[in-house]
């Protein structure tokens, strides 16, 4: 016994053929002005977020990979001048060396001011001047680590809603199509509904990597900030008293 299917109506299409109009190709060829705006915005968001995801991953890996080497190299060096020269040889984007160099520069500047009888030495002690320089250096390097995180947070929070706007617009087109054709057949609604579903998925695919990356980099940066603070406290003790306070 064989199952038989009803033939398609004359001049019409089968449901299977109508479903083919729900693909991405149909979406591209039937965009209107608002549809193109939503699509382009999501594409720009996606490329921008992936750029910062890759850039931050590389930068964080380099910072974390060099941190112990730079810190241990500074403390293990028997000569402060040699240690400073090694710090100056570090890459431009290495933050721990820049924090230590700022502290050393603050010491030299305060010594020159004290020797010249300037008002700087009277208004700020050596310890206070070093502390101010270290705070500024830590704040500056912390801010550099946060580059791109605002964009990732923006993409993660707004991309689903932008995709939802495309979804609402696609459903609106489906209703207009039903009204114009006078029927609610699959042929009339498949294309607009397909556009709506694709825009929803595109918004989620754009947002999810951005949210995951934002949370990961926030966690990674907090660990680095803790290292900044610990190193800065040790540097302050060293440059203010001439010796590192052990056992902290």
From TrEMBL:
Keywords: Cell inner membrane, Cell membrane, Membrane, Protein transport, Transmembrane, Transmembrane helix, Transport. GO terms for biological process: protein import. It is a multi-pass membrane protein. The keyword ATP-binding does not apply. It holds the Pfam family MotA_ExbB. Signal peptide: none annotated. One of its GO terms (cellular component) is plasma membrane. The accessory proteins ExbB and ExbD seem to form a complex with TonB. Belongs to the exbB/tolQ family. Involved in the TonB-dependent energy-dependent transport of various receptor-bound substrates. Protects ExbD from proteolytic degradation and functionally stabilizes TonB. This is Biopolymer transport protein ExbB. It comes from Dyella jiangningensis.
